Amino acid sequence: MKKPKLIWLNVAVFVITFLFAAIAVPYRAITHGFDSAEIIMALLCFIYCGMSITAGYHRLWSHKTYQAHWSLRIIYALGGAFALQNSILHWSSDHRVHHKHVDNNDVDPYSAKRGFWYSHIGWMLREYQAHRYTNYENVRDLQKDPIVMWQHKHYLLLTISLNFGIPLLFGLWHGDVISSLLLVGFLRLVLSHHTTFFINSLAHIWGKQTYTEKNTARDNGFLAFLTFGEGYHNFHHIFENDYRNGIRWWQFDPTKWLIKSCEYLGLTYKLRKSPEDKIEKARLSMILKRSQQKLSEHPDAEQLLERLQHEYDALINKLNAYYDIKKTLIANKRDKLIADVERSELVAQYKELKQRLIDQQQSWQFFIEKLA
């Protein structure tokens, strides 16, 4: 089968920037060295680019997980152009197709089932889906955002100005233009590219399927560290409308922290979260499925499977009861229907059901650990 035509501009950008980062930067480091100001500036620009993609392109525009003030949207739009990952409109269109048709080799723009190279960078090197390049029907909502359309219209000018202008201006101010162009320009850009690309490639290969195995997406804490929280990809693919990727307090998700912090400043609002009970049920369903698979070859499989199902059903029943009363309690607090919520009978029921759920969770965990 004949391969699609190469996109020579993309090939040139990726090859040239990589060669500068892999050869010129180490050579400059050995022969001249980089000072702390240059390293810090490169790191700050890397963070700015990365979080403009994660908080802006991805969670704000592609998935509409929250809304943002115009000033923050401009910051994201400039950072996205600085990251050189196409316009908001184009990036979001591709990403929505990816989610709708994930792992479908004929439709998913960067299907992981076509291999690491293809999903990481190969899909951008050839005209695999040229028929879609100007089709933005799935992002009509974004076409109503004047900032999105302004960036899309002036994308080439913005990306050239930022990628050369910022390193050049910093170099002139700091007194070393060559080091700035190499570190703040080339190395920062290559790192920004490939850490983002890891989410399309490694995050569909390496990690745990915590919430679903209906697609190839994985949860990986190490990738989350490299990608500002995007590594909890299995969660994201089943709960894509949640502004968080790392939902536990200990999970590294600075994008979530940025969005939440901006809410306190009035820069973000209408943050969307998936219901806790749905998240927990998805996680428990995966544990049940894996445990059933493990027990299927056991000599006492029938008896153990029956016990496993009994424990699971009991846990789900208590989970439903707990979250039902929790929702009622929150609604009553919000609507001020209870004069003294803390002393109400509803709170007593809530505490009792919470303890029952904890006891059942412990029973479930004990049984699962016995099977390990």
Task: Please give a handful of descriptors for the protein shown.
about 375 residues, mainly alpha, 2 domains, two-stranded antiparallel sheet, 14 helices, Fatty acid desaturase, fatty acid metabolism
Structural features, described:
One of its GO terms (molecular function) is oxidoreductase activity. This is Fatty acid desaturase. Residues 42-269 form the Fatty acid desaturase domain. A two-stranded antiparallel ribbon has the order 1-2. It has helices at residues 8-31, 36-62, 70-82, 88-100, 116-120, 146-153, 155-174, 177-200, 221-226, 233-238, 254-264, 276-295, 301-335, 345-371, and strands at residues 67-68, 268-269. The protein is globular and about 70 Å long. It has two domains: 8-269, no CATH class; 276-371. With 372 residues, the chain is mostly helical. It starts with 7 loop residues before the first helix and ends with a helix.
